[in-house]
Design goal:
two-stranded antiparallel ribbon; Leucine-rich Repeat Variant; 21 helices; mainly alpha; 2 strands
């Protein structure tokens, strides 16, 4: 049979319908089909948030979470559910809000939830505010309430509140006294969170330097579980000292000692911190050179090489060779660490641009993303410094 001209015009439509399914091309005037979970539409689950039974309302809040960004039409219903008479429903509603696009409308409700009588609700509110801090400027209104939450009766809420403040960076400087005091807390998780957030605040937190040095030098607990947490505390303390004491030698001696820490992550962050301090850390050149020449673990070798570049430009050529070599290593974690080190070098990393561009095709998506960010950072800082 010979196809008519009309048939030829219909062929592309028929092909598309077969390829994508009829749902992707709704008939003119017909609304697209609503997304479903477990055979129920989003609007059906939203109605169930008003069910008389708390268990059904809780299930609805959990189900809406499965819609992800497609569940954003449920925002107002979830904000109402966040004030439900049942604490389990309130907690689940806030958890679901944390899985949707951040919204300024959520901020007052989340701040109010920090005073909820349920620790689960308070914890969920803190985690949601942390995520919101990166996307919604109005979340800054939560800084003081989060500082107050560091005095919560529930240890995990206190720790998470300290961590959540890190999302605001230097803007959270009003939290410095509370964070500095938290460095003495018996709760290891809180100490680690406080040190990390102080690192995000930066030079304004100089008052915390003596306590951070004390944490870095503190011996690990004899009990293995506690020793693991102590290692995280020391790692975060090293990170904070690098960012807070940049341009000063006040913490250099302690950071050099931390290069020999039994915890590899602590040694890595100590090397990074010495690099951030820059020329005042010249006393670290010899031990860092030792790591570059003899250290078998690629992570510490890479970050020691990067630190040498930042402390003294004479090491630029030899260090860059090690960093570029790390970008082509078959081990993903080595490539990841080389990327991290180059990302901190800014314009100094311009020589690595060709190798970084190749990583845009790396099999690992995280490596691709980090390579793109590093390239952008190099370009921006080159522009800001006039290519110098």
């Amino acid at each position: 049979m010979i196809a008519s001209p009309l048939s030829y015009r219909l062929l592309p439509l028929v092909f598309l319908l077969g390829l994508f399914g009829s749902w992707s091309l709704p008939i003119l005037g017909q609304a697209p089909k609503e997304p479903e979970f477990q055979g129920k539409s989003l609007s059906t689950w939203m109605k169930q948030l008003q069910d008389p039974a708390p268990a059904n309302r809780k299930a609805a809040a959990q189900a809406i979470r499965k819609f992800g960004n497609n569940g954003s039409p449920a925002l107002d219903a979830l904000l109402t559910a966040a004030k439900d008479s049942d604490p389990a429903v309130r907690a689940e509603a806030i958890k679901t809000l944390n899985h949707q696009p951040a919204s300024a409308k959520s901020v007052p409700v989340l701040i109010a939830a920090l005073k909820d009588n349920s620790p689960d609700v308070r914890y969920s509110a803190v985690t949601a505010l942390y995520r919101s801090s990166f996307h919604v400027p109005e979340t800054r209104e939560a800084i003081k309430p989060l500082i107050a939450a560091m005095e919560d009766t529930a240890p995990r809420v206190r720790s998470e509140a300290a961590s959540a403040l890190s999302g605001f960076g230097p803007v959270a400087k009003d939290a410095i006294p509370a964070l500095t005091a938290a460095l003495d807390d018996k709760n290891r998780s809180l100490r680690a969170s406080a040190a990390f957030t102080l690192s995000r605040i930066g030079p304004d937190a100089k008052v915390a330097t003596p306590k951070l040095i004390a944490l870095l030098r503190a011996p690990p607990d004899a009990e293995e579980v506690n020793a693991i947490f102590d290692q995280i505390v020391r790692k975060n303390a090293a990170m904070a000292l690098g960012r807070i004491t940049r341009g000063s030698d006040v913490a250099v001696e302690s950071l050099i000692a931390a290069l020999d820490d039994k915890g590899l992550e602590v040694a890595v962050y100590a090397a990074m911190a010495l690099g951030e301090i820059g020329p005042p850390a010249k006393a670290a050149i010899q031990p860092l050179q030792g790591f570059v020449k003899t250290e078998k673990d690629a992570r510490i070798r890479i970050h020691a090489a990067a630190a040498l570049m930042r402390i003294d430009p004479q090491f630029a050529k030899s260090s860059m060779k090690i960093l570029i070599s790390g970008l082509t290593d078959e081990r993903m974690f080595v490539r990841y660490n080389a990327l991290g080190a180059l990302g901190e070098l800014g314009p100094l990393a311009e020589e690595a641009v060709p190798a970084l561009q190749k990583l845009l095709q790396d099999p690992d998506e995280r490596i691709q993303d980090d390579a793109a960010r590093t390239l952008k950072k190099i370009a921006v800082e080159n522009k800001n410094t006039g290519g110098k």
